[in-house]
């Protein structure tokens, strides 16, 4: 009797062990799988792209940002207005319902803008995006091109995702609807794809920007807490400017994260050019340059971490330094874990220490080994999202 019980007991404990082993094996293999997938998809994308129902859960995106922008919690939740652009036309002073400008400038408060169908939008004047606005181009092909482009002027909590901005042209001073829905005078603009002026908490993700008269992305006049991720920058002389002019000392507080972007082909300089502030430039892919990739003046600090720099035939040096008599030569450019191909080189600043980004918990992300940068940036720019599949 007692013997029978012992056998019985060991049978059940054996079965338990078998079940546990099976359970852990299955579990481990799914962890392994997502690890493998994870290496092809960066942390931002992993956060929402695996969801085949992303169209029904568009706002999931807001919690996927990393870097200085933090999470976009203020762009979702109670009181959010869903707005669909149905009309590609534009009127800068009296925008009509259904147009992009009506949603982005006129309506105030939390708004999530999507597009009914593929659209080419030719803006008559710069579009001034108001605070708490998301522009979400996923699932359709939206071009903002061939005239005025995007501006974030004295506004905060803005997401721009999944649009193509190109062939932007300079604009003469004109009246335009401001980010508060009121008509205001706007000075001359240079023809940038996206320009930030005294803006904060802005996330620019998965856009394709190219061939503009001035630059592709300018972060200026006290703008800070910006993350520029997963974008594709190409066909451009001046790509990205962080800190607009030498005299604007308030940009000392500027903090920008530049991560998982693809630069090239045919980018000349400023990836980025930085003045005053601090940039964490990590896990980006550099497909050549002409003058330089990373440069600056006025005591900028830049941590270049685990980027892949592929040099062009002519000029192998990544960095460029412009002397500024006013404050002496005090660039802090540090390279950590970067990879250099085709003879690329990076002149590190001698002495001193690279500044840590000091990310908070919600800003923090793991910078991955540079050997994964090719795959992590392989879907940069506007994503191709199928009708029924994952994005
Ligand atoms: C992070 O904190 C350290 C220590 O306080 C400081 O020296 C450094 O400048 C900070 N980094 C940035 C980007 O401000």
Give the CATH H-level superfamily: Single-stranded right-handed beta-helix, Pectin lyase-like
Shape: globular
- The average pLDDT value, as a whole number, equals 91
- Quote the CATH topology: Pectate Lyase C-like
Structural class: alpha/beta
Strand order of the largest sheet: 1-2-5-8-13-16-19-23-26-29
Number of strands: 30
- State the separation between the terminal residues, measured CA to CA: 63 Å
Protein name: Pectate lyase
Family: Belongs to the polysaccharide lyase 1 family.
Cofactor: Ca(2+)
InterPro entries: AmbAllergen, Pec_lyase, Pectin_lyas_fold, Pectin_lyase_fold/virulence, PEL
Brief digest:
The chain has 391 residues and is α/β, with parallel strands linked by helices.
Structure explained in plain terms:
- This protein is of the alpha/beta class.
- It has a single domain (2-376), classed as Pectate Lyase C-like, CATH 2.160.20.10.
- It has helices at 2-40, 43-46, 100-106, 373-376; strands at residues 81-85, 111-115, 119-121, 127-128, 133-136, 142-145, 150-153, 156-161, 164-166, 174-177, 183-186, 194-197, 200-205, 208-210, 215-220, 224-229, 232-234, 236-242, 255-259, 262-263, 267-269, 273-275, 278-282, 285-287, 294-297, 301-305, 308-310, 319-321, 332-336, 339-341.
- The protein has a ten-stranded parallel β-sheet with strand order 1-2-5-8-13-16-19-23-26-29, with helices on one face. It has a nine-stranded parallel β-sheet with strand order 3-6-9-14-17-20-24-27-30, with no helix packed on it. Strands 4, 7, 12, 15, 18, 21, 22, 25 and 28 form a nine-stranded parallel β-sheet that branches.
- Helix 3 links the parallel strand 1 (81-85) and strand 2.
- It is globular.
- The structure holds 2-acetamido-2-deoxy-beta-D-glucopyranose.
């Amino acid at each position: 009797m007692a013997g029978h019980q012992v056998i019985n007991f060991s049978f059940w404990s054996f079965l338990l062990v078998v079940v546990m082993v099976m359970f852990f094996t299955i579990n481990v293999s799914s962890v392994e799988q997502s690890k493998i997938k994870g290496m092809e998809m960066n942390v931002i994308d992993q956060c929402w792209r695996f969801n085949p129902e992303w169209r029904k859960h568009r706002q999931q995106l807001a919690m996927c940002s990393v870097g200085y922008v933090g999470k976009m919690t203020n762009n979702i939740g109670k009181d959010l207005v869903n707005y669909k652009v149905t009309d590609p036309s534009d009127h800068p002073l009296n925008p009509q319902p259904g147009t992009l400008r009506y949603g982005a400038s006129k309506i105030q408060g939390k708004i999530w803008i999507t597009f009914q169908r593929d659209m080419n939008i030719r803006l008559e004047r710069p579009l001034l995006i108001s605070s708490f606005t998301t522009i979400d181009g996923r699932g359709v092909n939206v071009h903002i091109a061939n005239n005025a482009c995007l501006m974030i002027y004295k506004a905060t909590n803005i997401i721009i995702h999944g649009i193509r901005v190109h062939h932007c042209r300079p604009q003469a001073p004109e009246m335009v609807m401001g980010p508060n829905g009121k008509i205001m005078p706007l000075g001359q603009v240079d023809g940038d794809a996206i320009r930030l002026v005294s803006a904060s908490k802005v996330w620019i993700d998965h856009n394709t920007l190219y061939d503009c008269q001035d630059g592709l992305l300018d972060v200026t006049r006290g703008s800070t807490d910006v993350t520029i991720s997963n974008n594709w920058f190409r066909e451009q002389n001046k790509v990205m400017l962080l800190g607009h002019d030498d005299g604007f000392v308030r940009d000392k507080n500027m903090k920008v994260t530049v991560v998982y972007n693809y630069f090239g082909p045919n980018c000349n300089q400023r990836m980025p050019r930085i003045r005053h502030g601090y940039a964490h430039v990590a896990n980006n892919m550099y497909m050549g340059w002409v003058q330089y990739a990373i440069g600056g003046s006025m005591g900028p600090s830049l941590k270049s971490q685990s980027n892949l720099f592929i040099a062009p035939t002519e000029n192998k040096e990544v960095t460029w330094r412009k002397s500024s008599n006013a404050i002496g030569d005090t660039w802090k450019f540090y390279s950590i874990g970067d990879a250099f191909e085709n003879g690329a080189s990076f002149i590190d600043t001698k002495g001193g220490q690279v500044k840590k980004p000091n990310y908070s918990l919600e800003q923090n992300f793991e910078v991955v080994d540079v050997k994964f940068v090719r795959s992590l940036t392989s879907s940069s720019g506007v994503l191709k999202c199928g009708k029924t599949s994952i994005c």
